[in-house]
From TrEMBL:
This is TonB-dependent receptor. It is a multi-pass membrane protein. Keywords: Cell outer membrane, Membrane, Receptor, Signal, TonB box, Transmembrane, Transmembrane beta strand, Transport. The keyword Transport applies. Residues 66-183 form the TonB-dependent receptor plug domain.
Length: 920
């Protein structure tokens, strides 16, 4: 523990030194990090009355843009361009407070949950507790049912963004119950005129994962002069697939040597899984493989010649000493092929009398093509079809199916399993703004839809006809099939949209605000608002999927479509009280009511004190609640399996021999219609300081606690504490685990607290140009979960537990330079190392995987730009300048093995160039 604190302290110390270095003007930094409102110099005098006012995320009251009682980080359009990122998910990947969000890399699997979903996760407390807005209003959540509920970042029109505001403080009092972790507000251009063309091309050093993008923006009309403005931004992106064969770091991970227990016992030629009686009979007969008597129940008649390179003889792997092991990490994808397109159009027109009408249309489509290893098949044949076993008398044994052999085969002749995931977003907003009787108003109707289609395209076959082909000898499990067998496989390939999901949000919202009499520090201001919305979800599995006849794609339990909906209403108010020259209070409260769940109030208070023009002190405290999502309430049961874990009950009967008593146990994951809301309380303390004209610093402490936490108990925690959770483990008549129940319940609590550090330097003029820069970092002091009231808290701070880790320190730092038409930017993103998931077990020899500490992860990016003419700008850059590979990890939660794909990037060094042409 002492070592961990020292490592974190060194990271923070390094960050502070970097800030001091910048403050000296030797170098300077603007990053793709976030610009904080406090980064702007405090104003000594009140703003002129005609200075334009804006609304900052975290407040419903428009004001002159300056520091507030709540910490807000801003990512500008210029910073996004300097980083060379083109999607909303890539932008948030460089926000230090965003932890364990869903990404394209982490979603790689075969038949897994919520593929294609890119999400945000502030503070690592959950996607469902992070609210994502577009221009201050909600979007429909990703429709496919699963553990996470949130906006698919693929539906954000990244090319149209003006900036991103990240409120790093729970904001349930203004925005609603799902803002416990914070709010991310993607803000698009509002009044664009002229024409702008952008093109971007990138390639990787080792091949694969190339990217091409193109966008066009066009707008007409000056709102003040012409009385209207209308514009549209269209964006098209394509990224190529990346396979394991295209990356040198994959064999360097030595997955076969280190993680053989995570590889597959389904091989080509097929492994045979003997019953205990069959193994004993063959041992009595002196049956051998490779000249050695068999010892295990899993055998392969071709061992040790296992048709390499994908199928290997690996005694320490899942195949063991008598069979073969399949290394899927040599035969799958690290990054999917994607095509993304979006269109944002907005129009506004003056109506006279200070009123305006506006309309906004956002359309998006993201297609992802997932390609995994070839299909696993559990087949059965009469042993007499295997020449080596003829005459062994297996039909005389006391088995359930005498003489039948279980095959664990890899169906290479069907090709790799491939699927196509399409997520489409559609959002229409119409509204009006203006002033009536001294009140500013904004009222709008919002219709937002997300649809998801999951299509099996290749490698998935009809199970019943496949079994017939194996049993009749047309399909050969141990070698090439006959032409008739290959024709049969081709004829039973599945090409079907197996899952369709649609989520719809319809809402009407309003907001009124005005100022009243003057107080000692300025005018008192009031805002009130409300929202009513209807949320609808539907999930439609195809008839073919419901038949449960697709090999490797099981039907959902219950065999039915689902339709769920609910009404939600909320009302809020906010008061801004500048009660003294140096003091300002921000009071707000919201009441939300959810159909079938109930309602609750969420109050919040913020306080700021400015003892001098250069220093701002601030604090906030509030309460909130998060209503359970419709997925948590009504999701169909999902069948899955654990990582390889020991069963203590079974282990006690075999002298704790893990090779016998550890396995991938079946699980059933249930929703729960009786869930109650989570409750939360959070507070923050911070300071912002302007050190002269060039340097701004801020440091904010944040603390969040949730109770009645909606969660499942981790399967590893259940089996590690059967005295308390044994009722969740269901056993058969022999006492072996049948399945483990993972049910959503209101359990225990969650605590997260830490520090946000921001250092900004800008406008340092020297003889060789202007320098600037920025550092944004998050240092987590605690992140832990209590599974039930009274239980000890389990920490995932710098330790991988069940499904992920929260790193102690993450930062983004950048250094910028410009001189005339030339500019350059050097950027770094860094995540601290942590204790790995060191509980995996090799079920062949019973050994526990060697303990590992995952190394820190640091990526450097470099870009340069030339403003060739007033209308033409060229940029070129290198991402992952030093070709840093993902650090090795033992983790067994994600489909990909050998590293953690949730925060690392397997693409390696990438080169890109872009061109921007604009005129008005």
């Amino acid at each position: 523990m002492h070592t961990k604190l020292n490592a974190g302290a060194r990271a923070v110390r390094g960050a502070l030194l970097a800030g001091a270095w910048m403050a000296g003007g030797v170098l300077a930094l603007p990053a793709l990090a976030q610009e904080t409102p406090q980064a702007q110099e405090p104003q000594a005098q009140p703003a002129p009355a005609d200075m334009p006012k804006v609304e900052i995320t975290g407040s419903a009251i428009r004001r002159v843009q300056s520091e507030t009682a709540l910490p807000v980080q801003i990512v500008s359009r210029a910073e996004i361009e300097k980083a060379g990122v083109t999607t909303a998910a890539e932008i948030l990947g460089r926000v230090s407070a965003n932890v364990n969000g869903l990404t394209d890399g982490a979603s790689i699997n075969v038949g897994g949950d919520q593929r294609g979903f890119n999400s945000a996760n502030l503070r690592g407390i959950g996607t469902s507790s992070t609210l994502v807005l577009l221009n201050g209003r909600r979007m429909a959540n990703f429709a496919s049912p699963g553990d996470d509920s949130g906006v698919d970042l693929n539906n954000i029109p990244a090319a149209a963004l003006e900036r991103v505001e990240v409120l790093l403080d729970g904001a349930s009092a203004l925005y609603g119950t799902d803002a416990i972790g914070g709010v991310i507000n993607f803000i698009t251009r509002k009044d664009f005129q002229g024409l702008e063309l952008n093109a971007y091309g990138g390639k990787t050093d080792e091949g694969g994962a190339g990217k091409r993008t193109a966008s066009i923006s066009a707008g007409k009309g000056d709102l003040e002069r012409d009385g209207y403005n209308v514009f549209a931004v269209a964006d098209f992106q394509r990224t190529d697939a990346l396979s394991t064969a295209q990356r040198k770091f994959i064999p360097n991970l030595e997955v076969e040597k280190r993680l053989g227990h995570l590889l597959s016992g389904y091989t080509s030629p097929a492994n045979i899984r003997l019953t205990s009686n069959q193994r004993d009979r063959l041992q009595e007969l002196g049956f051998t493989i490779n000249g050695q008597p068999i010892t295990n129940r899993l055998i392969n008649l071709s061992a040790p010649n296992c048709a390499p390179p994908a199928n290997v003889y690996l005694p320490a792997g899942t195949g063991g000493v008598d069979a073969c092991t399949y290394n899927y990490m040599g035969d799958t994808e690290l990054y999917p092929k994607t095509e993304k397109a979006s269109l944002l159009s907005r129009g506004v027109v003056k109506l006279g009398g200070g009123h305006q009408a506006y309309a906004e249309v956002a359309l998006s489509r993201a297609k992802s093509w997932y390609t995994g290893s070839s299909a696993r098949v559990t087949g059965y044949i009469d042993y007499r079809l295997v020449p080596q076993l003829v005459g062994t008398g297996l039909e005389d044994l006391d088995d359930d199916y005498p003489g039948e052999l279980e095959l664990r085969m890899r169906l290479n002749e069907a090709g790799q399993r491939s699927s196509e995931l399409t997520s489409e977003g559609m959002r229409f907003v119409v509204g009006a703004t203006g002033a009536v009787g001294g009140w500013d108003y904004d009222v709008a109707y919002n219709h937002s839809v997300n649809t998801v289609k999951d299509r099996d395209t290749h490698g998935y076959v009809l199970y019943d006809e496949l079994m017939t082909g194996i049993q009749e000898g047309l399909i050969n499990p141990f070698g090439p099939s006959s032409q008739a067998g290959r024709d049969l496989i081709d004829s039973i390939q599945v090409d079907d949209v197996v899952r369709r999901a649609r989520g719809t949000l319809d809402s009407v919202d309003f907001k009124l605000s005005r100022t009243f009499g003057a107080m000692a520090g300025g005018n008192l201001a009031l805002a009130v608002g409300g929202e009513v919305r209807r949320e609808k979800n539907r999930f439609d599995p195809s008839a073919l999927l419901l038949s449960d006849n697709i090999n490797n794609d099981a039907a959902p339990e219950g065999g039915r479509s689902t339709r769920d909906s609910r009404d939600v209403a909320g009302l809020y108010g906010e008061v801004l009280l500048p009660f003294a020259k140096q003091w300002e209070a921000q009071l707000s409260a919201r009441y939300d009511r959810y159909e079938q769940v109930g309602g609750a109030a969420s109050p919040k208070i913020g306080l700021s004190y400015r003892p001098s023009d250069a220093l701002l002190l601030r604090a906030s405290a509030g309460r909130g609640f998060r209503a359970p999502t419709m997925n948590e309430l009504f999701r169909p049961t999902v069948y899955s399996a654990t990582a390889t874990l020991p069963d203590p009950v079974y282990c006690a009967t075999v002298e704790n021999n893990y090779s016998d008593c550890a396995d991938n146990w079946d699980t059933r994951r249930y929703s729960n219609p009786d869930l109650k809301p989570e409750r939360s309380r959070q507070f923050s303390l911070g300071a912002a300081f302007a050190a002269g004209r060039h340097v701004n610093l801020s440091l904010d402490y944040w603390n969040i606690k949730r109770t009645d936490l909606i969660s499942e108990i981790g399967d590893d925690i259940i089996l590690g504490n059967l005295a308390k959770y044994g009722d969740l483990v269901y056993r058969d008549e022999d006492g072996l685990i049948d399945y483990i129940e993972l049910r959503k319940e209101n359990r225990g609590a969650q605590v997260a607290r830490g520090l946000d550090l921001a250092v900004t330097v800008r406008g340092v003029d020297t003889a060789i140009g202007r320098f600037g820069g920025r550092l944004n970092g998050t240092y987590v002091l605690a992140s832990r979960i209590q599974n039930a009231p009274g239980d000890a808290f389990v920490s995932n701070l710098n330790k991988f537990v069940t499904d992920g880790v929260v790193q102690r320190w993450r930062h983004t730092v950048s250094f910028d330079w410009d001189r005339g038409p030339l500019s350059a930017s050097l950027q770094n993103t860094w995540s601290s190392g942590y204790d790995d998931q060191n509980t995996a077990i090799n079920i062949d020899d019973g050994s526990v995987v060697a303990a590992n500490k995952v190394k820190s992860y640091s990526l450097w990016d470099l870009s340069g730009a030339w403003q060739a003419t007033p209308t033409l700008k060229l940029r070129a850059g290198v991402q992952n300048l030093f070709d840093e590979s993902p650090p090795y990890s033992n983790q067994a939660y994600y489909f990909l093995s050998g590293y953690d794909p949730s925060y690392t990037d397997p693409r390696g060094r990438r080169f890109y160039a872009s061109v921007n042409y604009s005129f008005k």
